[in-house]
Amino acid sequence: MSATGFESAEYLRQDGLGLINAAEAYALGYTGAGVRVGVFDSGIDALHPEFASSKIAGGMDLATLMPYAPGLGLDYDGHGSHVAGIIGALRNGVGMHGVAYDSTLFVVHQFQEPNDDDDDDDDDELPTPSPGYLSFRDEYLDKIYSAGWRYLAEQNLSIINNSLGFNDCPDVDPPCNVMGYGSAAQAEAAFRLSVSAYRELAQAGTLMVFATGNEGQPHPDFMAGSPYWFPELKDNWLAVTAVSEHGGPVFYANQCGVAKDWCLTAPGGDLGVGMGIYSVQSGGSYVRLAGTSMAAPHVAGAAALVSQAFPYFGAYHLQQTLLTTATDIGQLGVDSVYGWGLLNVGKAVHGPAQFVRLFDVDTQGYDSTFSNSISGVGGLTKRGAGVLQLTGANTYTGPTTVGGGRLVVNGALASTVTVQAAGALSGAGTVASVHNHGVVAPGNSVGTLTVRGDYTAYPGSVYELEVGPQGATDKLDVGGTVTLAGTLKLAGGDLRQNVSYHFIDAAGGVMGQFDDITYSTVFLTPRLDFAQGVALRVERNDVPFERYGRSANQKSVGAALDPASSQPPAAMDDLYDDVLNASADQVPDMMEQLSGQVHPGTDAALLNAGQLMSRTLSARIRANPEAAAPERHTPLWAHVIKGSSTLNGDGNAAEVSRDMTGLMLGGDTQLKNGWRLGAAFAYADGRNKLDDVASSSSSTDSYTAALYGARNWVMERGSLNLMAGVAYTRHDIATRRNVDVGGSQTLKADYHADAAQLFAELGYAIPMAGASALEPYAGLSWQHLRVGGFSESGGQAALGGQAQSSDLASTTLGLRARTELESGPAHLALTAGLGWRHAMGDLSPSRSMSFVQGDGTAFSASGAPIARNAAVTELTAELRLSKNAYMGVSYNGQFGGGNTDQAGAVHLRVRF
Questions:
Q1: Residue 866: DSSP 8-state
Q2: CB within 8 A of 569, min separation 6: which ones?
Q3: Are residues 522 and 646 in the same domain?
Q4: Residue 247 near residue 208, CB atoms below 8 Å
Q5: Burial per residue of 43-72, b for 16 or more beta-carbon CB atoms within 10 angstroms, e otherwise
Q6: Smallest Cα–Cα separation from 877: which of 837, 819, 790?
Q7: Cα 792 → chain centroid
Q8: Are residues 77 and 7 part of one domain?
Q9: DSSP letter at 454?
Q10: Start-to-end CA span in the chain (Å)
């Protein structure tokens, strides 16, 4: 949302928000969220809607020792609620909202005395002065205020607002402002406990925001002006004087005076009917009040916004950012009336605008940006983890030191930068000179860092060089002399052979050289050229691609790519760039992606699934309830099949999982010579998925035609049963794999495969008690799979392959048990079997492939292996629906070598 989008009715009712440019901060997302602000005042009306929910984060009423909490707390005269509303009243569509409307408030109420506040809304009647009154008053206030501040010092608060004061000018010869105490000793004698508490708060790192007072004095009161007598407090103090809600002067406000270095101005409101700052009134309503008490909370709320923008800021950083970004009003520069000027929080959330001395900051792992143009005689020291970016035209003259984390200069610096051992400098801006003891990495990714003076690298330092698209590279453009030492680190990007990467320009020449060059690529060797500045070239070394492959498939791909690696085909430049620039750890993953395992993996899945036809036809023949007598009818049958299988990977080839849904239709008839002959047709929809880095998959549409025959011979005890058949299958195959070597590519291919199958089974059915039988059996099958050629499309990693054949034979030995149960017209046949299968032939199908856009060098990749030995299980239940209709369910499973192959079916057969 833009800044104007935040200028709601709530915003406009509180005139001060517009005057301090708050909407600009809101538009950047800064609302005070996550920041607690201390409020030392007369309490808070915890039941007011502006303080609902969890707005009140805690606190204490020191008059009653009762805690403040959501919905719990009183305001003794309304002053504290008004102040708290200016800081953080909710943005809820009602009334007004605070500067930091998403902040939370920690409230402390101090004891009261007759003239407890500093603003002109006070109408308390003062007692008649008497001898000793002032010393009694100071001692009393010192005691109660110091107790509150000590309590606050224990709460780990970064900001505390203090809209209160010690002054009592109507009394006879009082100290009307901080200068009236004469000396530091006299001031500390008057407020011994408070000064001690101030030191505790400074030690705790708290920013103390004080109203200057409302006596029209040329200097603030004692509290706001304390650092004048006690300079150790200065970095933690902000004194706030006031202007009207429209930015005009007000007669009542104490000027900044001797506190001008830590003083600024904020809206305090004007006196008169309908004037003042609109904020919360105890009891659920709103009221306009005026005073520096109303100016201070604008600054406290602004500090919360800046604290959200820069969570690592301490009190000094918050103070300096608010002061140096204030809008200059009154006399030019920091003056004794308005100090640094009018609060501008919309600018403050962009960081400081001046360094008056060293700005030493630990970014504590946060990433942030100073986008204001920073001036001043001070310098910058960045410590700790995290990134600090400077984007302004910075003219500060002090030194810049990077002690930790990264400093990114995308603007300009008039300052010399010293990069210490734990620090890093980068960016595409301009600096004066650079002393590098740490890391210099020009650009934002790839870019040019300009150094107007000298660049000096020291032993142990690092220059990080990154290469971008089209040969762009990080660059250091130095107007003076370059002195080299330390390490050149090739940090990223694809370097190409026979290309000169010019990365340092030096108008004053180059002295020295790098002590070392570090790089992760194992196939390229770098060389440096110092003819003009410093340039880098890389050459193909003699390390073969296959050396870093971890599997046979990976090594095979590497060997195929290697011959063209010195002069890669133009159509495969990007792919070779990635491989040539790969580290030893990256090579296996790349070769795995490039191996095209989806093709042999699909072959393996099809061969493994080929036995489903023979198992189904065998079950069909066994459905004859009279094992010793041929069925005289001509049945038709249908099977609906759902199956899944997994071929376990072997460390070379990836695991292949297959899901299949199919329909099989058939019929058979009895011949006079005792043979039963039949035909079947099937369709299967298969989905194959590889567990590989390329997310490879394939789909198959399979169409099968089969002929089968069976005969039994009645023996003395039982019957000898023979079943045999032949099948042909046409597979339509579509493959897909995702490769990110040479850019992101989705590679696809469509091709066909043909399969022929012969199968036979011989069993001997032995009648048992009742209608039961046992049948030991032996089976034999042979498959021939011929896969057509293919050519992938979709990118530089596309593969092609010629037609190729695989053969698989298997033998099975097993035992089946069959029983029939009858009850009246109901008839149920149950069959269970267990066997052992031994496979021979192409158990790990392989494909010979080459890169479509390469030099034609072929490589071989294998698919997941088919189990050589597997246990075979089967279960069938068939129910007679009528004299000529049967329905059943069946299950077939094979388990071995970590592989599984399971299928379930529902079948129906009808006799005519």
A1: P
A2: 853, 854, 855
A3: no
A4: no
A5: bbbbebebbeeebbbebbbbeeeeebebee
A6: 819
A7: 34
A8: yes
A9: -
A10: 78
Radius of gyration of the chain (CA): 43
Q: Is 837 helix (H, G, I), strand (E, B) or coil?
A: strand
Domain-located, residue 334 = no
**Domain check: are 638 and 729 in the same one?**
yes
> Is 132 exposed, middle or buried (CB count within 10 Å of its CB: 0-12, 13-18, 19+)?
exposed
Residues in the chain: 912
735, 739, 745, 750: CA torsion to nearest 10: -10
Q: List phi, psi (to 5°) of 759.
A: -150, 150
Same domain for 597 and 536: no
Do the domain assignments include residue 905?
yes
Domain encompassing residue 748: 591-911
Give the dihedral of Cα atoms 409, 413, 416, 419; nearest 10 deg: -10
Q: Are residues 524 and 618 in the same domain?
A: no
- Is residue 379 within 8 Å of residue 399, measured between CB atoms? yes
The DSSP result for 731-796, as a single string, is: EEEEEEEEE-TTS-EEEEEEEEEEEEEEEEEEEEEEE-SSSEEEEEEEEEEEEEEEEPPEE-BSST
Distance CA 627, CA 715 (A): 11
Give me the residues paired with residue 705 across strands. 681, 728
Q: Could you give phi then psi for residue 301, rounded to 5 degrees? A: -65, -40
- Number of domains, the chain: 3
In a domain, 340, yes or no: no
Q: Which residues contact 100 (CB under 8 A, 6 or more apart)?
A: 31, 32, 35, 37, 87, 88, 301, 302, 304, 305, 308
Tokens 């870019």, located at residue: 447
In DSSP notation, 361-389 reads EE-TT--EEE-SPPBSS--EEEESSSEEE
User: For residue 241, what are the CA distances in angstroms to 116, 275, 299, 325, 465?
Assistant: 18, 17, 10, 16, 52
Q: How far, in Å, CA of 661 to CA of 659, rounded?
A: 7
Domain containing residue 609: CATH number: 2.40.128.130
**CA 85/CA 101 separation, integer angstroms:** 9
Question: What pLDDT digit, counting tens, does each position of 96-153 carry?
Answer: 999 999 999 999 997 654 444 444 443 333 343 344 444 556 788 899 999 999 999 9
Q: Which residues contact 293 (CB under 8 A, 6 or more apart)?
A: 79, 82, 83, 117, 118, 119, 163, 164, 211, 214, 268
Residues 6+ apart with CB under 8 A from 208: 160, 162, 198, 201, 233, 236, 237, 238, 315
Under 8 Å between Cβ of 797 and 804: no
Average pLDDT for runs of 10 along the chain of length 912:
94 97 98 98 96 95 91 92 98 97 95 47 38 58 92 96 79 76 92 96 97 96 97 98 96 97 98 93 96 98 99 98 98 98 99 98 98 98 98 98 98 98 98 98 94 98 89 92 97 87 95 95 94 92 96 97 94 95 96 97 95 84 52 81 95 96 94 91 97 95 96 92 96 97 97 97 92 95 97 97 96 95 86 96 96 95 96 95 91 95 94 78
Is the domain of 693 the same as that of 835? Answer: yes
> Is 670 inside a domain boundary?
yes
Number of other residues whose CB lies within 10 A of the CB of residue 858: 16
Q: Are 871 and 835 in contact (CB under 8 A)?
A: yes
Question: Using N-to-C axis directions, what is the helix angle for 133-153 and 192-203, rounded to 10°?
Answer: 20
How many whole angstroms separate alpha carbon 525 and alpha carbon 516?
13
For 316, residues 6+ apart whose C-beta sits below 8 A from its C-beta are 235, 236
- Compute the C-alpha angle 521/527/529, nearest 5°: 145
Helix (H) or strand (E) segment spanning residue 426: strand 423-427
The residue to which tokens 């953080």 are assigned: 88
Tokens 């990256």 belong to 586
Q: Which of 109, 141, 156 is the last residue of a domain?
A: 109
